[in-house]
Design brief:
CATH class of the largest domain: Alpha Beta
Subcellular location: Cell membrane
GO molecular function: ATP binding; ATP hydrolysis activity
Oligomer: single chain
Largest sheet: 8 strands, mixed
Radius of gyration: 21 Å
Protein name: Oligopeptide transport ATP-binding protein OppD
Shape: globular
Structural class: alpha/beta
Bound molecules: adenosine-5'-triphosphate, magnesium ion
Keywords: ATP-binding, Cell membrane, Membrane, Nucleotide-binding, Transport
Pfam family, one: ABC_tran
């Protein structure tokens, strides 16, 4: 599959009074044309910093210390701010978790979407732009688009505001849409509707999507492929069916045990992974998950495991997957109990 985005060894830190927060520590991945790539992981694993690095929307204290982000032959870590503004909201757009923080409360929503088109198509007439906004509102199923065009953000429910954000993100038919937990604040029914729309829009426009969430259930519904992040690293990468059928990392197994199983009784208790994520000002030298991993051995704390290929397009960072790892009952990948 042709890659639209290629991230190589991305390393992003924050310089704070407590020291350097090593938020993203050498992350490499690509996004195929028309592909929906999920990024999952617990809070603080580096998902947002990875995605914000792509469009350089990071706080002033952030530094991209190493790596490259190739998009259409250009390295986004090096292009000028002007060039980046041309790309943002046009070829690459982003949807954030909280639509209220990205919408201007004083401007009617239709006008805000229209302005987004105007920035990148200054010659287009006002009427044509308005017609396009109507079409977008209809596409994301905002009822009575003509009337809603003139409404202000506070007159919309959370779900409707999120649809406005999606309409705005799609206004210029982006080649890549980055959605950072766009449905977390919404109730399950609305979340389902929005996911269905994203999937339809992906088919219709052929756009690629990076979808960030801490919910593997959502990933299962929407994505083609997934990256599992922890401690600023990719721990596992796999096609969607493989991650559920053959999780290749104890951390992924832990995440899978903490999602509700739709086929189980509702009373089924979820098991969150015990323990808490590492302090990223002083990340452990070894596998960052080792202190919480019930399969961890001595070797795991010593140094960081390299990636091991465990299947087609399936790689994982775990010593227990090494060829010379002992195959005993304590190795979930070699005969042990999962
Ligand atoms: N502005 C900042 N200054 C200092 N540290 C930051 C800043 N933003 C993020 N971090 C740190 O970078 C690390 C990665 O954060 P990030 O926001 O990418 O996590 P996340 O995976 O998106 O989590 P969540 O699921 O909560 O959104 C965390 O340790 C976080 O505390
Ligand atoms: Mg985040």
């Amino acid at each position: 599959m042709d890659a639209i985005l290629q991230v190589e060894n991305l390393t992003t830190s924050f310089l704070t009074s407590n020291g350097e927060v090593q938020a993203v520590r050498g992350v490499s991945f690509s996004v195929g044309k028309g592909e929906i790539l999920g990024i999952v992981g617990e809070s603080g694993s580096g998902k947002s910093v990875t995605s914000m690095s792509i469009l350089r929307l990071l706080a002033d204290t952030a530094r991209i210390k190493d790596g490259s982000i190739l998009f259409e032959g250009e390295d986004l870590t090096k292009v000028s701010k002007k060039k980046l503004r041309e790309i943002r909201g046009n070829k690459i757009s982003m949807i954030f978790q909280d639509p209220m923080s990205s919408l201007n409360p004083l401007i009617p929503v239709g006008k805000q979407v229209s302005e987004m088109i105007k920035i990148h198509h200054p010659k287009m007439g006002k009427e044509e732009r308005k017609a396009q906004v109507m079409e977008l509102f209809a596409k994301v199923r905002i009822p009575e688009p003509e009337k809603r065009y003139h409404s202000f953000p506070h007159e919309f429910s959370g779900g409707m505001r999120q649809r406005v954000m999606i309409a705005m993100a799609l206004a210029n038919k982006p080649e890549l849409l980055i959605a950072d937990e766009p449905t977390t604040a919404l109730d399950v029914t609305i979340q389902d509707q929005i996911l269905r729309q994203l999937r339809e829009l992906d088919k219709e426009y052929g756009a690629s999507i990076i979808f960030i969430t801490h919910d593997l259930g959502v990933v299962a519904e929407l994505c083609d492929r997934v990256l599992v992040m922890y401690g600023g690293l990719i721990m596992e990468e796999a096609r969607i069916e493989d991650i559920f059928e053959r999780p290749g990392h104890p951390y992924t197994m832990g995440l899978l045990h903490s999602i509700p199983d739709v086929e189980q009784e509702k009373s089924e208790r979820l098991e969150p992974i015990p323990g808490s994520p590492p302090d990223m000002t002083n990340p452990p030298a070894g596998c960052p998950f080792a202190p919480r991993c019930s399969y961890a051995r001595k070797v795991c704390a010593g140094s960081l495991p390299d990636f091991v290929e465990v299947g087609e397009g399936h790689r994982t960072r775990c010593f227990l997957q090494y060829e010379d790892a002992p195959a005993d009952e304590h190795n979930p990948f070699r005969g042990g109990n999962r």
